[in-house]
Design goal:
The complex is a heterodimer. Chain A is α+β, with helices and mostly antiparallel strands. Chain A is built from two helices and three strands, in the order E-H-E-E-H. Classes of the chains: A alpha+beta, B alpha+beta.
Chain lengths: 78, 156
């Protein structure tokens, strides 16, 4: 599946943890570059240099990982 | 009736967006439902603050996108399944909360049992009864042949 080489994802700060997003970014570091900045109520994640050779949607998979990591971290807190 | 609503369906992008009021379900319920769907589709959660809208507390927006191509009907089915999963998770949470004490007690007992528990006091009694470990007062160590050997013909 072809996709744009850059994308910006906005993840709400009340729903996603910064550490979880960073962890997901590290997981996908081989396939794209990630830059996370706070933007009001959201974290704006700029995804660039997306590897065109990768099968699947790197950005969407990254979002799934960020959500999963957040759930895991919140579970540990409880 | 307060419930989740389908905000939009984009069949071309294989995406459906659900909206639910923030106060309707706890955040753990939303996470729980999202966790179930995470292997089937791409899940993106968002929050609409909605200060001026009809829901003053805001709304959670759940964007679901199929990992494979999905028709409009399949997307609507997916959103329905997500709604069911929200209810299921909410009930599960309620049951766990109601039985928290029992669950904790059973778990504690199971862990204590696996850890060996406490030894009966008889085992800890160090008083010496004067017996050696080779002593056999009940005759347990006597071989079967010796115990039940056939009486020889010359014996009366």
């Amino acid at each position: 599946m072809s996709q744009a080489q850059t994308a910006v994802v906005r993840l709400h700060r009340a729903l996603y943890m910064q550490q979880a997003i960073k962890e997901a970014a590290n997981t996908f570091a081989d396939f794209a570059s990630f830059k996370i900045v706070r933007d009001g109520e959201h974290y704006a994640v700029s995804v660039s240099d997306i590897d065109g050779e990768v099968e699947g949607d790197v950005v969407a998979e990254f979002c799934n990982f960020a959500l999963h990591n957040t759930m895991q971290r919140k579970k540990k807190r409880i | 009736m307060a419930q989740h609503t389908v905000e939009s369906v984009d069949a071309a992008a294989h995406r459906v967006t659900l909206a639910l009021e923030v106060g309707l379900y706890p955040i753990e319920v939303l996470y729980g439902a999202a966790y179930v769907f995470i292997d089937r589709c791409f899940v993106l959660l968002d929050k609409d603050e909605g200060k001026d809208g009809p829901s003053k507390g805001g709304r959670y927006l759940v964007h679901l996108r199929g990992k494979t191509e999905l028709s409009k009907k399949e997307l609507l089915d997916l959103s329905g399944e997500f709604g069911n999963e929200l209810l299921s998770q909410a009930l599960r949470r309620k049951v766990v909360k109601a039985n928290q004490k029992i669950i904790e007690e059973i778990t504690t007992q199971a862990i204590a049992g696996a850890a060996g528990g406490t030894l009966p006091t008889d085992f800890l009694d160090s008083s010496d009864d004067g017996m050696d470990f080779l002593d056999d007062p009940l005759g347990i160590a006597v071989p079967w042949e010796d115990k039940f050997k056939k009486k020889s013909a010359d014996q009366p």
